Amino acid sequence: MGNLSRNLKNAAIAFLVPLPSILFYISFLNHCQHLHDDPKSNDDVSLSPLWKWCYDHPLLLANFLFFFNVNVLFWVISHILSSNWMIDLYWTVIPVMLAHYYSTHPLAQFNLWRSRIAILLTWVWSLRLTHNYFRREKWQWGAKEDWRFTDMRVQYGKHWWWISFFAVYVSQQVFLIGICLPLYAIHSVDAPLNIWDFVAIVVCLTGIVIAFFADTQLHEFVTRNEKLKKLGKPVVANLDRGLWQFSRHPNYIGEQLWWWGLVIFAWGLGQGWTFVGSLINTMCLAYVTKLVEDRMLKQAYRAEAYRLYQKTTSVWIPWFKSSAIAEKDKNN
């Protein structure tokens, strides 16, 4: 009963927490409705200073809402709940919210088909990742926080209360606003569909499919090991089947293809500068990859198998196993 009560409480919090931003933005749109109906009415006296600033600076407004609703509010809630679980869930939600925000802002201008395609793809990506989140968490809301945050909580001790504001939340603003910049570009330029749009669609869909199958194979591997452990049988030390026989992190490469696919949309519109967010995300993921592999090597039952896996299998980009290296290692 206690778990059910906590689950319902966390679900309620998750649904209610974005309301400040949503209500603020709806109020802003209502104040700007006359500008949409009659663009010639856009002058310094038609809006109050607050709404005029929101109207003139869509990208800054997105950052403003993120800072107060996510950085500050999520941070406060994390201390009340003693967990930073909510930012993981909202990683799957915020890009969808930003896509709709950029498309509905009064200054938005875009090709309707490109906008629809980009938003639909973002929804498909989000549903896949949300499904994977709940499947991994055994369909519970906020069962646990990301292990990296838990490790940092121990590492920083009594200082974690303020360090977490920057390490968990301000950093997420840089990543999420940054990687969603192509969605801003898509809704800032009205141009006909071109060959780059079709390339972008293929890359985005490829990334989503690879990530889906990689995460599904990982979930099945973990579930199988949990069953073996309950039966008192030896667990399988390492996953090296399916997509995982060609890459040590196929789920990561799938995610990277998705975000860089969005960049291709923007590139085709002459907004190549938006690659900066995906570049930062890729660099961060390279560091996360190292953390994950170090964690694997610290687990005694799988350390030896994982070292061999490192020698024979590509880190990210899928490639054939280096069987010669594996054979040499066995002979030694």
UniProtKB/TrEMBL annotation:
Keyword list, A-Z: Membrane, Transmembrane, Transmembrane helix
Organism domain of life: Eukaryota
Entry keyword annotation includes Ligase: no
InterPro entries: UstE-like
Residues annotated as transmembrane: 12-29, 59-78, 85-103, 160-186, 193-214, 257-288
One GO cellular component term: membrane
Name by which UniProt lists this protein: Steroid 5-alpha reductase C-terminal domain-containing protein
